[in-house]
Design brief:
Length: 176
């Protein structure tokens, strides 16, 4: 690693970093999987992005101490459920301290190839197989090759920024 003179300052505080990232709105997803006993697991995730088109790869960052992450690592697969604008309650539920059982009893879901699909609350779903993980400090970076996509037109995506939920205007038409 190169050291640049003058850049030897300590990192900013966690609160300062959180304030910075609140200024960068992102889509909201719920990452789901099933464990070896077929039990569903899931957590809200806004740290998700496309990494590569060839092969089609998503990158999700999951809390290192998360039981959902542990289930993803054991199963080798996950689903990125991209929430639509009416999915705020689902985002809150899967981001809360609610038990795994309570989360999945409170939403409509179906079994998909890589785990639970939250179809009623999503505008798109990606089924992925884990290809690699990278240590990211408090989170683990999980790379997943996308092997199936389900899209639903009609409702705009749910966004999160400045510590609030937002949606795109309804008249926004995606370019293809």
């Amino acid at each position: 690693m190169n050291h640049t003179p003058g850049l030897t300052r300590k990192p900013v505080s966690p609160d300062t970093f959180k304030a910075l990232m609140s200024e960068f709105p992102s889509g909201v997803s719920v990452v789901t999987t099933t464990d070896e006993d077929g039990r569903p697991w899931g957590m809200t995730c806004s740290a998700l992005c496309s990494l590569s088109i060839e092969p089609p790869t998503l990158m999700v960052c999951l809390r290192a101490d998360s039981p959902t992450l542990a289930a993803v690592l054991r199963s080798g697969r996950f689903v990125a459920n991209l929430l639509h604008g009416d999915g705020q309650d689902v985002a809150r539920l899967f981001g809360s301290g609610s038990s795994r059982g309570e989360r999945f009893k409170s939403v409509t879901w179906t079994a998909g190839p890589a785990g639970p699909h939250l179809s009623a609350d999503t505008h798109a779903i990606a089924d992925c197989r884990v290809t690699r993980t990278v240590d990211g400090g408090t989170h683990l970076i999980v790379l997943g090759e996308v092997f199936d996509v389900t899209r639903r037109d009609g409702k705009p995506p749910l966004l999160y920024g400045r510590r609030r939920f937002h949606t795109l205007p309804h008249d926004t038409t995606p370019t293809r």
